[in-house]
């Protein structure tokens, strides 16, 4: 079994890419500055995290899709009694900054944009890729758009906008907003804007420590809730005061 970190003053948090930006930019720096502990982030799409965990990788905590967290808890990998809903996210579309305004306010407008696009970056393994495939099917344009898709196995789809490899990028709103130099066109319109829930849970086999307890408080602190909102995530918790 592979343990990502073993030092008592360092905690490892495996995280979906959807929550990476607020964790990296706000939550972890605040945690480290206030407590003296360190946090090592191990970010990947939930499917990649699941594969690693099934292969024996362990950390101190996990933030991932609700279904994956529940599955791992039922398998005895995560502490089922400590699962906490964290945020929910929507799927959206982005383009490079300062491009012409794009309208996706209705299913018909979204359909027109996708059909006229030259290329669309999308995750091949993440939940956004699965959701986007469903949207294309519902709009009945799967075949027409198939040859425009630029698929990535992991990482941030909007990075392909910056390097010129795609005209549009589709991913979780928080993942799109994590890339500088892009404009978020918006979430998909009803009825194509299904929300995805993410939860936090500690690993059952990892000894409880002051560091992971403190990190948990910071993950659910008011400052964290504000950070999640700034990246297009909707908190699913009542914020507690970090360090209280």
From TrEMBL:
InterPro entries: ModA/WtpA. One of its GO terms (biological process) is molybdate ion transport. One of its GO terms (molecular function) is molybdate ion binding. Gene3D superfamilies: Periplasmic binding protein-like II. It comes from the Bacteria. This is Substrate-binding domain-containing protein.
């Amino acid at each position: 079994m592979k343990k990502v970190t073993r030092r008592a003053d360092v905690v490892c948090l495996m995280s979906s890419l959807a929550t990476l930006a607020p964790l990296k930019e706000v939550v972890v720096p605040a945690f480290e500055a206030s407590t003296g502990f360190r946090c090592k982030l191990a970010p990947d799409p939930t499917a990649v995290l699941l594969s690693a965990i099934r292969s024996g990788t362990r950390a101190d905590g996990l933030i991932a899709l609700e279904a994956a967290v529940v599955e791992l808890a039922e398998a005895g990998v995560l502490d089922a009694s400590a699962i906490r809903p964290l945020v929910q996210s929507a799927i959206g579309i982005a383009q490079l900054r300062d491009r012409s305004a794009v309208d996706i306010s209705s299913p018909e407008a979204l359909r027109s944009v996708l059909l006229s696009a030259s290329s669309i970056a999308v995750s091949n393994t993440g939940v956004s890729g699965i959701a986007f495939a469903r949207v294309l099917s519902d709009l009945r344009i799967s075949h027409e758009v198939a040859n425009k898709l630029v698929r990535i196995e992991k990482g941030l789809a909007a990075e392909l906008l910056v390097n010129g490899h795609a005209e549009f990028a589709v991913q979780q709103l928080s993942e799109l907003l994590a890339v500088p130099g892009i404009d978020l066109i918006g979430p998909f319109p009803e009825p194509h804007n299904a929300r995805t829930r993410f939860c936090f849970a500690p690993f059952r086999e990892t000894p409880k420590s002051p560091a992971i307890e403190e990190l948990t408080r910071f993950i659910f602190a008011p400052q964290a809730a504000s950070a999640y909102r700034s990246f297009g995530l909707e908190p699913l918790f009542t914020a507690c005061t970090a360090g209280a």
